[in-house]
Design a protein that fits this description.
Distance between the termini of chain A: 49 Å
Structural class of chain A: mainly alpha
Distance between the termini of chain B: 67 Å
Number of domains of chain B: 1
Oligomer: heterodimer
Order of helices and strands of chain A: HEEHHHHH
Shape of chain B: globular
Structural class of chain B: mainly alpha
Radius of gyration of chain A: 24 Å
Helix content of chain A: over 70%
Number of domains of chain A: 2
Radius of gyration of chain B: 22 Å
Strand order of the largest sheet of chain A: 1-2
Number of strands of chain B: 2
Shape of chain A: flat
Largest sheet of chain B: 2 strands, antiparallel
Order of helices and strands of chain B: HHHHHHHHEEHHHHHHHHHHHHHHHH
Largest sheet of chain A: 2 strands, antiparallel
């Protein structure tokens, strides 16, 4: 059952990847249509006395983008299909989790947790390499960013209650 | 005042304790980042951009300049020792560098790459010293219509030259312009395309956008290479500086090739969109026609000298249009331009007149960085194997943290991180689908300049497009633009018919 679901997931990802040569120009033409609509309706294109208005330049560019995107849609049939490895998204998910964790534990602690978990659990490195790499990264984060550049990182809920 | 005395003044700006230390730091970081396979100069400069927050504009740009410049040295290391190019210009170095290393002369191959990079860079910088101010004086005659036409040529040619498909390049260029229009109208200050979002009102922040587009997307790409193992005989050797020195005979062999490539590479670098990769390719291709002791591609020292000198010279040449006209020649140039703008400096014809200490300080710092990068690159030879064998599995989380922290540091909020994350994911998907993101970065940086010039020109002409044809400079650029577009259409349709025919077979 679980295998079947995983297969379905892969097939879904595969079909998205197969259609990517078409999905990108379709997305850019939608973007262009939104820009044209807002440019004409909300910001205005031309003023008889003052000349070009806020929407003038983006609307022209969006119009050209629409034309080029339509050409790309019609000629995308023969394009090579990209291959996306599902494992590649793991780092994006991990980054998202690190960002969410920083709201609770603060940025520095989240970075430490991410480094330890990624190197020790995911990559199965020894404690020695994991700790050396984590300490080196923390030297950059704390030494360069917090102390040298004086960046105030979020402390998170826990840090907020402690301080 | 002559250019040489202005350059000497520039050296007086650079040769302070702080700026020399900054230049040194930039050179070391640039070399290490450039040497790491898979990161490259564009991602390297983008990731290290947050480091410049601490400095005054001159020092910040000196750091960026030396970073960029030493990155060019670093790209060849992995090409020679691992047969993996550190960046795209190093692809050509690989052709002779790796075979030469295989022949048992890895140290000499590295030494030759460093010396040729230095020679090419020195030639490029000398030409820049004389060409840059001349170009800037010419640029002073540019009206808004001329600037508009020039910017259109620059953007179109980059969209055309970068990547395989011109249509895709143009799409990315236009998307970059639309993204940059989010925020406020540069002339009236009225909000636009912000979808009533408070954060979007300030526009898309440049640093997180670039870190995501080139840094985080690179991390996603590196995930596929996590399990690649580098196991080569060359890496088991012990390199020493003494054992890597070139003989007099080697030096005589490489010198004419390096000088020729240096001159050629500089002029290639001046062209928008051509950049270091085209420079390296042309340098190699043209020098191949000259007599060499060993044939190119078999580990010839002449081959390494040809492409390494050309790519560094092109990197120097690219500074001429960047400083004099405000037109970057490549994605990395666009990041540097963004860095300059972040510091309130607008490169262009007036830069040499209004901020001579800055413009000449930067050129002088490049001369200095060229020398420092050579010394450090030679000094690094014994440690290179250790640097190059840092596993990708370790690079991935480290670069991810730098992307996260660097983006946060720019905006002091998670907004920067969100911008970095989204631009990284979108860029990864685009790059995988054959859409190069370099034109998008370039147009993102140049779009406000294009918009303000276009609007000024149209206000002056009361909406008539004739203004672009009555000025000789604008008219020339418009003709060039039409030629590029015609080539683009021909190339696109010939490619499409070729693919259809292949598909039919």
């Amino acid at each position: 059952m679980e295998k079947e679901e995983r297969m379905k997931g892969r097939m879904f990802m595969g079909s998205i990847a197969d259609n990517m040569p078409r999905i990108i120009p379709v997305s850019t033409s939608i973007l262009a249509l939104i820009w044209i609509f807002l440019g004409i309706k909300s910001y205005g294109v031309w003023d008889e006395y003052k000349g070009p208005k806020s929407g003038f330049f983006p609307t022209i560019i969006a119009f050209v983008l629409l034309i080029v995107s339509v050409i790309a849609i019609f000629t995308s049939k023969n394009k090579a299909k990209p291959f996306f490895e599902s494992g590649n998204w793991l780092i994006a998910i991990a980054l998202m989790k690190m960002v969410l964790m920083s709201y609770i534990f603060g940025l520095e602690l989240s970075v430490v947790a991410f480094m330890l978990l990624w190197l020790r659990v995911k990559e199965k490195y020894s404690w020695k390499i994991t700790l050396i790499t984590t300490i080196s990264v923390m030297l950059i984060v704390v030494g360069v960013f917090r102390m040298w550049l004086k960046i105030q990182f979020p402390l998170g809920l826990i840090g907020y209650f402690i301080t | 005042m002559s250019n040489i005395s202005m350059l000497l003044n520039g050296f007086s700006v650079v040769l302070t304790f702080q700026n020399v230390s900054i230049c040194l730091l930039g050179a070391i970081l640039g070399l290490i980042v450039g040497a790491m396979p898979g990161i490259g100069s564009l991602a390297g400069v983008a990731l290290l951009l947050p480091l410049t927050y601490k400095f005054n504009p001159t020092s910040a740009i000196i750091l960026l300049g030396s970073l960029y410049y030493s990155n060019m040295f670093g790209g060849s290391f992995s090409a020679i020792l691992l047969n993996i190019p550190g960046d795209s210009p190093a692809v050509m170095t690989m052709l002779d560098g790796y075979p030469m290393a295989k022949k048992g002369r890895p140290g000499q191959a590295l030494f030759c790459a460093n010396i040729s990079s230095f020679i090419g860079g020195a030639i490029g910088l000398l030409i820049l010293t004389f060409l840059g101010p001349g170009m800037a004086s010419f640029g002073l005659h540019f009206g808004p219509q001329d600037m508009t036409a020039l910017l259109l040529v620059a953007m179109t040619s980059i969209g055309y030259l970068v990547g395989k498909n011109p249509i895709e390049g143009i799409i990315m260029t236009l998307v970059g312009i639309l993204i940059s229009s989010i925020g406020m109208d540069p002339q009236s200050g009225a909000p636009r395309y912000n979808f009533n979002n408070m954060y979007l009102m300030g526009g898309i922040p440049f640093v997180p956008f670039v870190i995501g587009t080139v840094g985080f997307s690179q991390v996603l790409r590196l995930m596929s290479e996590r399990n690649d193992r580098v196991d080569d005989e060359i890496l088991k050797q012990r390199l020493t500086i003494k054992g890597s020195l070139l003989t007099r005979h080697d030096f005589r062999r490489m010198l004419p090739f390096a000088v020729r490539s240096g001159v050629l590479g500089t002029f290639v670098g001046v062209l928008p969109g051509a950049g270091a990769t085209t420079g390296a390719f042309l340098g190699y291709a043209i020098n191949r026609a000259f007599k060499s002791e060993e044939s190119f591609g078999s580990g010839a020292i002449e081959g390494i000298a040809s492409c390494e000198a050309a790519n560094n010279a092109a990197a120097a040449g690219a500074f001429a249009p960047l400083l004099a006209l405000g037109i970057p020649g490549s994605g990395t140039g666009a990041v540097l331009l963004g860095g300059l703008m972040m510091w309130g400096l607008s490169p262009g014809p007036l830069l040499f007149r209004n901020n001579p200490e800055f413009a000449w300080g930067l050129i002088a710092s490049l001369f200095f960085a060229n020398l420092i990068a050579l010394v450090i690159a030679i000094g690094l030879i014994p440690f290179l194997i250790k640097i190059l064998t840092v596993p990708v599995k370790i690079i991935i989380p480290v670069v991810t943290v730098i992307c996260f922290v660097g983006s946060y540091a720019n905006t002091y909020s998670m907004y920067g991180v969100v911008v970095m994350f989204i631009s990284g994911i979108v860029s990864y998907i685009c790059e995988k689908s054959g859409y190069s993101t370099a034109p998008m970065i370039l147009s993102f940086v140049l779009a406000p300049l294009l918009e303000s010039n276009m609007r000024k020109a149209l206000i002056t002409s009361q909406g008539s497009l004739r203004i672009f044809f009555t000025s000789p400079i604008a008219c020339t650029f418009i003709i060039i633009l039409f030629i590029i577009i015609s080539f683009m259409i021909i190339r696109y349709f010939s490619r499409s018919s070729k693919t259809t025919m292949e598909g039919g077979k």
